[in-house]
């Protein structure tokens, strides 16, 4: 018997639930307890294996402190025919990772703009892909708005 393939929208919504949960530092167990479901059910939601009903999605949005639209923003844009860059997806996956969250939180905690620029220069020098160099101008603009 062949395993059911998750619907792309269900998988996207689940990925957004996972991203927000991780950004808040919540475990699957703590979120599932807040929702009154098992952590296994939450895992299925996050993987897109099980579809999240409207009332459950409303409750998830309340617990995670986001509007329901948070779970659909990029997907809605794609459905409307707008193209999002592959980099957006790559960055979202990185930020949702354990290392991405830790790095993002540590970087945000650095208040001195000079230290931020030096850390960014170090990361660029250590990077081995051209994409890091290609994004240089964009990062510098972000740094300038902060300092």
Structure commentary:
The chain has two domains: 8-83, Orthogonal Bundle (434 Repressor (Amino-terminal Domain)), CATH 1.10.260.40; 110-146. The chain is built from ten helices and no strands. The chain has helices at residues 8-23, 28-35, 39-47, 54-64, 73-79, 86-96, 98-109, 113-126, 130-134, 136-146. α1 crosses α6 (86-96) and α2 crosses α3 (39-47). The longest helix has 16 residues, at 8-23. Mean pLDDT is 78; it is low at 80-85 and 141-146. Residues 17-71 form the HTH cro/C1-type domain.
Give me a quick take on this structure:
By secondary structure, the protein is mainly α. It has helices at residues 8-23, 28-35, 39-47, 54-64, 73-79, 86-96, 98-109, 113-126, 130-134, 136-146. The longest helix has 16 residues, at 8-23.
